[in-house]
Structures are given as C-alpha cells and as structure tokens.
Amino acid sequence: MSVGATVGILFTPTVWTALDDVSIWTQNWPWIPTLKYGEVKGVPTVSKMCESGCAVKVRTVAGEAFGTEGNVDNPISGGGICPLCANGVQVMNSPTRIKAPMLKGAEISWDEAKQLVTEKLAAAGNKVAVISGDQTGTINEVFSALLTSQGSDAFYVMPCEMQAADKAWSGLMGGSGQVGYDLENADVVLLAGADALESWGPTVANMKAFAANESGKFLFAGPVQTRTAAVTSKWVPVPTEGMAAFTLGLCYYVMQAGRSVPAADFEQFKAMVMSGYTPAKVEAATGVSADTMADIARTLLSASNPVVIPSGSVAADAAAFALNLLLGGAMKVLPEFAKAIDGAMSRSEMLKKDILQGVSADLLLVYEANPAYALPEQVKAGFTVAFDCVETETTAAADLVLPTPHSFERFDDLASPYGLAAATYALGAPVSKPTVSVMNAGDFVLGLAALGFETFEDVLDAKVAAIGADKRALVGGAVHVLAETPDLSGVTLASSVLGKAAVPVKGSGAVALAPYTLLNVGTANQATTPNAPCTISNNQLVGDFLVVMMASVTAKKLGVDVGSKVKLSGGSGECSALVQIYEGVLPGVVAAPLGLGHTVGDEFSKGKGDNVYKILTVSSEAATGTSTWAGSTVNIAKI
Amino acid sequence: MEERKSSKRCGGVLPFIIGFLATCVLGWAVIPGLFFEEIEQPIRFSHAIHVEDQGMECDSCHNFREDGSYAGFPSNEGCADCHAVEAEEVMEAIAEAGIDPADYDAIMKAELDAIEGSLLSSSDENKQAEREYVVKYLIQGKEVPWLNYQYQPDNVYFSHQAHAALDIAEMAELKNELSSVVDKSVFDEPAEQNCNLCHLKDIDKSDTPPPFERNVLSGYSKMTMKMWKCERCHALKGQPNACYTCHK
Amino acid sequence: MEIKEFKIKWGMVIDIDKCTGCGACMVGCQVENNIAPMTKKDPYNYVQALTTDRDDAANKLRTLTWMNVYEMSNRKAFPEHEVAYLPRPCMQCGHPACVPVCPVVATDKNEEGGIVSQIYPRCIGCRYCMAACPYHARYFNWWDPLWPEGMDKGLSPNASVRPRGVVEKCSFCHSRYLGAKDKARAEGNDPMDLPDGAYITACAEICPTKAITFGDLNNPEHRVHELAKGKNAFRLLEKLGLDPQVYYTSEREWVRLQGDNYNGDGGHGTPSNHG
C-alpha cells in the first residue's frame, strides 16, 4: 500500500509545488532586507557634509530617504554631487548618531542641558569661545551674537581657505567683501595650489564649471600631481612653501609686459617684485625653471579672461590676488549678505582669530567641527560643549555633547561658499524626521540668551527677508544671487608685507610634507562614509595602514621602496605608514592623505590608517602674523 | 525456487490501488490547502461602503502618479481627506483620560469624543473598524500594512502603466489560450475593468476583504502570479519575454 | 556566433580627460543598487563569530564595486609623469563572454536596448561568468549583505537585495529604464523612442564633471551617438572582439594605447572576429 501511496502522491501536485515553494524559500532568507515601495520624490535641500556646503536633492520613497542626487537647476550643484553627499542618507541613518544629550557619558534631558549651559555661561562671563565647523551658515550669526552678548570676540573657524583668503584680502590688502573666481567663463585658469576639482572650495560647483568650460585651459601648480592634475593640461611642480614666490615670479613677467594696477602702493610693489622675484631668484627658491615661468606668464598674458586661484598660506593668497588684479581677468569680489541678527559678527570678523595659535576659554562651544582630531594640541577649555550629529573625537572628549539633526533633517542655509563667482544664498528645509532626540543648535543657543529670536527658523526667515529673497523659491531649490560688487578703490597690493612673507620658509625636517585631502577619504570634519572605503585606493590605505607617496628619487635617497614600513615624525607626533612610489610627487617631498586615523567613529573610519594632522607643523608666517601649515616637514625613519 | 510467491507476499494489486487512489484524493483535495494559512487584513476595509454608499470612483484611491508609477494602496494622506483627525488633540484627550497611549484596546473602549466625533460610519461593526484604523494607524502616523494578494518579491518589476491599455474585450478573444492564466469567468459579464484579469473580481462590492492566504513555505500569496503565467500572456500578445522585462 | 543586433543600444561615452577619480560614481552606484557597506563583524551570526571575520573594504578582491574607477599612469618618471582615471562599469558587450558560459541562463542579452541581464534568483553562484569576463566587471556576494544597525531602513526601490552566493554586476540602472518607459507611456509618448536624458544611469547623473555621457548609441538624437564616433574614442580591449557598448575618449595617446593593453614594445592587436 505504501508503494501505491508513494506512486500516488507523485501524481498529485503536492511534491512538485512543495519543491517549488522550498526553492522559493531558499531565495527569501528572513535576514535579507526587503524593499519599501511608494511615491519616489527628489526633495531639494542644503547639505553641510563638506566645509563649503552644497545643494542636493534627497531621494525619498514613501517618505523615507534612501539616496541623494544633484540639483540640476541649482548653480551650486548643476546636477552633480561629491562622494560625501552621495552617501549622506547612510550617514544620517548611521548607528553612530548621537542619540540624546550626554553629560560626561551619561544621558541627560534637554532641559537639564540648557540649565547647565546657562549656568556655565553666567560663570564664564566673557571667557567663552566658539569653534564653528560650518563656514557658510547663518548658524554662525547665532553663535557670534551669543559671544558678543557675553562681551567676547573669541569666534574661531577651523583652518580653511576662506580664512586665509580673507586675511589676505581684507587684512593685508584693505579690500572688502569675499574673493571669488569665475571658473566657468575664464579662458585660462591657473590653480596655484588649489586642488579645486577634488577638495578645494565648493568642489562640485568647481567641477561643474570645469565641465561647462570646454575651451578653457586649466593648469595646476603644486607639490603633488593630485586628482585635479589628472584633468588639467599641465602640472607645474611647485613646493607649497614656494607658492607665493612662484606667484610673485609670474607677477614679474606680467608687469614686465606693461600691466599695472591703480593701487596706492603699485610702484612700491613693482620695485619689490622686480628686484626680489626675478626668474633666477624664483628658480632658486622654488625649483621652477625660468622657461616654465615665462611659458605660463605668456599663456596668462595672451588670455582675455584669465584667473589665478591660490591655496595655502596668506602670502600665497595675497600674491595671487595681486596677480589677478594685474591680469584683470575672472577674479570677482562678492558683497556680503545682510545680517539677520543685530549682534552678529560679519564674516570678516568671524575669520579674524587664528585657531592655530591656540584657544583657551572657560566655556568652549564647538559646532560641528572636530578640533580634537584636526588640531590635537591647541584647544584648551574649562568646560567644552560639543554640538554634532555623529560621534567624533571631539564629542568623545567633550564634557557635554548635544546632538544636532543631520543636514537633511533640519532647516539650514548656505551663503557664498568661498570660491563661488557670485554672492549666492541657498536655503534648505528638512526632508526626514529625526529618529533620535536632537535639537537644532540654533534653537538651543537662542534659548540661552535674549538674542531677539525664539527659533532658528525665525532667524532664517529674518535672513531671507533681510536679503530680499523668496523663501518658497529657496526651499524649492532655487538660489538668491547678489549682483553688486564692493568698491575696490582702497585696495593695495600689500607691498610692504608681501615681499618678506613670500620668502619660502621650511621646517627643519629632512623631507617636506605635502598633506592632501580627498573627499572620499574624509575631511577635517567628516570622516569617510559607509560606502566610500571601497573607493579608497592603495595609494592612500593598504589594509589598515596609511600609505604615503614619494617619487622613486626620494625613495632611493631615503633607502626605502614600495611597501617599506616607515615612521614619519613631525609637529607634535608621529605616524606610521607604508611607502608607495608615485612619480607625481616633487622630489624631496612626501605626500600624505589627511582624513584617516580616526579613533572614534563607525567601523568604516575607525582604526584605518593614521592621523596626518598630528605631524603637521604650525609655523608663523613672519610678515603676515598668521599661522600656517605650509612648509611642514617630517623626518622619515624605516621601521 | 521457481514458484513465485510474490503475489501472496505483497498482498496483491488491491492495496496498491487503494493507496494510490487515497493519496491522489488527498494530494489534490486536502494537502494543497494545508500549504496556506489565512491571515486577515489589518483593518476590515469595506469596499462596498466606499464605492456603493459613498459613490467613490476606483481611481480616487488607486491611481497612476505623474511619473507613471502606480499608487496601489492609498496612504494615510488619501484616507485623511475624509477621515481627518487632529492627532495632537486625540493624544491630549488620551492623556487627560489617563489611558496608556500604547494600550489601543483601552483607548478604543473609552470611546473618546475626539475620536468618536470623526467616525463617519453608522453601524456599530463599521464604527469599530473605523475606530481601529484611527487609533492604531492614523493618529500614530503609521501607514496600514495592507497585505497584497498579488504579492511579488523584490526581484520582480511589474508596471501597471504598461498594462493599462489592455482591452479586456480584445483579451476575451484569447480566453481559451489564456484559460490556465485567467479564469474564463472573468470575461463572462460585460467585463469593464481590465484589472479583473489579475485582481479579485467584484472586490469593489465586498464588505469584508477576503483573508490573505499565505504560503507557509515560501511566504508568497496564493494568488501570487508565477512567472510562467506572465510569459504565456506576453507570448500570446507578442510582447517581449526578455528577463529584464520583468526582473530587477 | 553572431553579434546580437538591437534597434536600441544603450551605451556610454566616458571622457577620461574629465574624470578626476573622485569616486562619487562609485558611491552613488552602491546607494542606487543597495550594495551594503563592507562590515567585518556580524553581531547576529554566532556561527560566523566562531570562524573568520567577514571582509571589510580593505580586501579589494571582495568589494562589490559594480562601477570601479582605475588609476592609469603613463609610467614615466618625474616630472614627465601623467595620471588619468578610468571609470569602468559593465561593458554590456555586444558579444558578451559571460552569457554563453552560464550553465543556468541567469544572464542573457535578449532585451531591446542591449543590456546584459543578471537575474539573481536564478544564479547558482558557480562564477564561470566571472572567469569569462575580461573586464572584471562581475562581482560575487561572498557574504550576506549586512547594513549597520538602522541603516537598511532607507533602501533604494530600484534593485532587489541579493543574498550571498550570487553574482551581480552593473545593469546600467535598468530599473530606471523601466521607470523611464512608464513615464513615457504616462505622457503618451513612445516608450521605445526615449529622448536623450529621459533615462540616465545613477553614475552619469551624479558625476560632477559630466565625464560620463549615457544614451542610445543607435539614436542620432542622443549625444553618445556622435561622441562614440569621435576620433579619440576607443574601447577597452578591442582586440578581444567583444563589442563593448562603453566607449572612452581621451586626447592623450598613452591613455588610448593602454586601453587595448598596449605593451609598449610594439603593436597592439587588431580587432578580430571570434568564430
């Protein structure tokens, strides 16, 4: 009978459908996530994942954010995004989000936090300082207004190009407003150290301008053949500390050809350059041959709309501004947007203080910056309050940690990132609802002192009204642009200072250090994102080891080869790394990537590589009185 | 050993036939049913009330979006057009009445005015169904997790827009070739909606949604259309049967 | 075997002189296609914990980079050194090497548009296709996808999540093609005649320098049609005769020569027809 039953069952669908169902069961393991479906939208907003900030569209399905794309209609993005924003949603959903206010590691309520900070503020009086990692937002007006109401002017930004440029333009040259560069319409662009197509300034806007500028000729000068140099027509090897001299050397040729600037100290400037920055002297100081200099100068002189974009020290910036004024090309000066809060500092005022000289305060408020990682030695405070979205070295070391909403979860704005050709304002509304207990830093600070506003959204409304923009249009992804140009009549060429400041100064170590930033590896404030580690090449990281690059000539001199384990000592620390031979590095220079070596963070960034910020040396630019990392040197020993 | 005692040993042909027939009957009539478990929809949604009584059109809730995608299950946003309730008001009322906001049964039993005022049904049964929707989903801001009779796994991409132009009258001509895919009764009366080719006929007249029959092994619905059915119709209508036409 | 001809042929032209190697295309591709970040530890799998760790992104032999950016060098010493970056998606070959070797027909080139399909439930993970592909464009799921806690609530609806044991590859964001066809139908247009830009891959859309141009190589109204015929256009490993649908262009001759694995000691192969 059992035989009959067995044969019988085969004539029914039982066995066959059961097999089919089992095979389907093997395809649908319960631990594999399933997808959600619904209406797909692209919601425009502003992103602060990199220092400049960008305009993006967050893609949502059934209201849940899953990815990002660029905003084609917004001039800051033009449809593209960088690798950081491409992973923005994943950072927003990361388990390293700070879940609630934490006092020395223990969770407290927002009310308790507010009470505590109010007390600390009263006790600190005017010994309160702010470090802001956001270069472009109106949140800075809130923080600076708080400071001025306490009688303090200790507003600090993390070391950045915007600050160096401001010190050069308004500090040394008596200009007002912010310098910008019209990359899209320039016919010759000399990137004097500015890694504009990788990590300098508003990177995505730069790349969009580069793409649109089909006929423009781009030249890159710097110690390392960076990713920018992969697409420019020429790489001019120039050491970082020699960039100012290099630029003044170009001024020599340009003035020899008869160009001038109607500045009060023009004659002084000309005399200084013609005697101190002759081709021979520049060749001796920087290694760039007179022929190369003449060639570049010729290219700049024959262009109808050239622009020089500097990077690095204040002297290099000032020299480049002088060169731009002589050439009369695509350098722009942007007016500042009207303030929303009366007591707030202007952008120039915010950029005045030099963080590399050190910070000392009774109460320190750090907003979305990571000084404990990028400035290990210099920050000291009695009580530190860190505002941030994800766990960082700074939040781990802070006394009080206050979680902020992610860029896509809050109202935020963006005013003229340094480098844009026109004064541009963008505003973003929240796309997602936060799932952890966060408060907009602006709302928190407004609750500490009577600054005239209840919420940060009110401040933004006031800002929009003050600048005469349309909030609806802004929230929909448009920008507001100011066309005016500040008065350039009082501008000088800083001749008394520039001559001395442009002399290259190097540290005492054996090898020059050229640190570089790649967005996919991470910036000073934002570590590498979850999907990015597979994009990090073995020129930056091999396994968990930092990789430094040098030319074969340098390697031979140091007695190392590909894969050699070395120790780099400089600044206040040391890093261990593996050597990679890369012919795109100036001999005598070692190139090291910034952004690795995190000790706090998620599994994708923690414990990978080493922190090159540790070995940068801070030197004081003698003449300009500002601190700089240019001219950092290291000693390399084989391990 | 020439005598074969086989027939005596195995008892003959009869037990074989009995066994065979028994399993055939079981295998066709009983066992297939055991593969499925019935699960009720989270809310007893009555199409009859909304379509017949309220005179709503199918596409007030089931419609195409601008980008061509299909909004099959309406979201709370759509339902709130009529079943509007101030979530904050209700939460306050719950707190005032001293009920634990997580205890849905207690909230419903309390028959709070803030909720009762929004109920649009007349009969007690219908009121209870509405109350459940409001308390468990609408005020929580949660979408109702409707169970999809036509469930397809993630690797399948089905486009309603591509099938929107199918004329059911034309399809009726192929009803014999399609008999394994579509039940012939679909074409019987003046068939209006081509939706009936795949979806439950007369669902718009039902007062209680039929239970979702879930396959205990695979997790799919009993009505999940398998690949061969899609391929058959595609082949008959001259549409491509390339893998990527339907997969992702 | 003949090369399959389709009326529509989706392809790309990638301008190497515009690619800065930033990696946005790689990250965007992973987000669009639900590729999980590589996590070393699996807190849910106790058995896993007893054996080895999973692989993290440092092991480049295990990463799932459907779009992968390579660094090219002209191999000269300082200061003549030049560098270039080359993004490499699946070539969607006209005469694919991977299709004929699949024992279960999990991959095929049978859809109008010429995108080589990869059907995950059908794949048995034998990896013959990976061995066959000379572009290394196919990737195997050595591990189950594992997102960090909470990160998988926001997944893209455009690609199913693959379990371990199946091969996957770039699909030219095929769901977007289906979506574009739906949109065309909704607007009353012909879904088989999409205008330039109606269907664009995630990598082409995201690229900040617009180095990647995507479109129908057969349609004269699409930009790729002319760009692919440019005098500096070339394809990778032309001599293998696989007829890839991804073209590259560069004004630099050393880049073009390396595209066909030029050895520098004389002559690169000429395209040949296989059987």
UniProtKB/TrEMBL annotation, chain B:
User: Keywords, A to Z?
Assistant: Membrane, Transmembrane, Transmembrane helix
Annotated protein name in UniProt: Cytochrome c, class III, conserved region
Q: Which residues cross the membrane?
A: 12-36
Q: Which InterPro entries match?
A: Multihaem_cyt_sf
Enumerate the PANTHER family for this protein: CYTOCHROME C7-LIKE DOMAIN-CONTAINING PROTEIN, LIPOPROTEIN CYTOCHROME C
From TrEMBL, chain C:
Note one Pfam family from the annotation. Answer: Fer4_2
Q: Which Gene3D superfamilies match?
A: 3.30.70.20
* Boundaries of every 4Fe-4S ferredoxin-type domain copy: 10-41, 81-112, 114-143
**UniProt xrefs under NCBIfam families:** mnquin_red_QrcC
Instruction: Write the protein's name.
Output: 4Fe-4S ferredoxin iron-sulfur binding domain-containing protein
What is the species of this protein? Pseudodesulfovibrio aespoeensis (strain ATCC 700646 / DSM 10631 / Aspo-2)
Phylogenetic placement of the source organism: Bacteria, Pseudomonadati, Thermodesulfobacteriota, Desulfovibrionia, Desulfovibrionales
- Tell me the keywords, alphabetical order: 4Fe-4S, Iron, Iron-sulfur, Metal-binding
Record GO terms (molecular function): 4 iron, 4 sulfur cluster binding; metal ion binding
